[in-house]
């Protein structure tokens, strides 16, 4: 379990495509390189991955086909910047919201409106997820816990907007997004459970 509070921005050192439709990533996770153990869960761009190897300057992870199909990981290349968060401990404060690291889908950045003190990020999502978003509800974008400020679900438009404060822009990869970029989306766990129960 994670909180959506990014601890650092790491750099992808190597990407290895394996023969069984999986991808191995080597990521420089900064201070976490020496503070992580094999078998530990770390969120990379919001994706819960397991540490397979602790290297001198990086950690090694493998993403299988299910992860490749649901996330933007296939677009990650050597040199890509990624948000990093170590799994939460029981004594940790939950500064964001409960994030599982199990990505639901990807969204496309369709608009970025910048001002002096904040930016508004608009992300298009598939209409089938419309029942999982609510104004002032929580959402995780590339592993960052955010509050939904506006939604649209009519006339063929389906998107969510979130407001980004300067510290989020400066200390996560969201500050470098441009229109057309894909982002990993994880909807709020409570919203997913409610939606599932209402189907019965």
Automatic annotation (TrEMBL):
Keywords of this entry: Repeat, Riboflavin biosynthesis, Transferase
PROSITE patterns reported for this sequence: LUMAZINE_BIND (PS51177)
InterPro entries, alphabetized: ATP_synth_asu-like_sf, Lumazine-bd, Lumazine-bd_dom, Riboflavin_synthase-like_b-brl
Function of the protein: Catalyzes the dismutation of two molecules of 6,7-dimethyl-8-ribityllumazine, resulting in the formation of riboflavin and 5-amino-6-(D-ribitylamino)uracil.
Annotated Lumazine-binding domain residues: 1-97, 98-198
Signal peptide: none
GO process terms (BP): riboflavin biosynthetic process
Pathway assigned to this chain's UniProt record: Cofactor biosynthesis; riboflavin biosynthesis; riboflavin from 2-hydroxy-3-oxobutyl phosphate and 5-amino-6-(D-ribitylamino)uracil: step 2/2
Name listed for the protein in its UniProt record: Riboflavin synthase
Catalytic reaction list: 2 6,7-dimethyl-8-(1-D-ribityl)lumazine + H(+) = 5-amino-6-(D-ribitylamino)uracil + riboflavin
Molecular functions per Gene Ontology: riboflavin synthase activity
EC number(s) stated in the UniProt entry for this protein: 2.5.1.9
């Amino acid at each position: 379990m994670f909180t959506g509070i990014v601890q650092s921005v790491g750099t992808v050192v190597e990407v290895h495509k394996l023969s069984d439709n999986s991808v191995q990533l080597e990521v420089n996770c900064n201070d976490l390189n020496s503070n992580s153990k094999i078998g530990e869960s770390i969120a990379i761009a919001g994706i819960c991955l397991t540490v397979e190897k602790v290297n001198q300057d990086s950690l090694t992870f493998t993403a299988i086909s299910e992860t490749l199909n649901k996330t933007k990981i296939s677009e990650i290349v050597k040199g890509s910047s990624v948000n990093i968060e170590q799994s939460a401990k029981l004594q940790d404060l939950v500064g964001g919201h409960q994030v599982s690291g199990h990505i639901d889908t990807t969204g496309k950045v369709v608009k970025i409106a910048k001002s002096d003190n904040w930016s508004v990020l608009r992300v298009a999502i598939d209409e089938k997820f419309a029942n999982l978003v609510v104004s002032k509800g929580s959402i995780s974008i590339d592993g960052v816990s955010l509050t939904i400020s506006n939604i649209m679900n009519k006339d063929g438009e389906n998107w969510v907007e979130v407001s980004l404060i300067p510290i989020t822009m400066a200390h996560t990869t969201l500050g470098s997004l441009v229109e057309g970029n894909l982002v990993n989306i994880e909807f709020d766990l409570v919203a997913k459970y409610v939606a599932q129960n209402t189907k019965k």
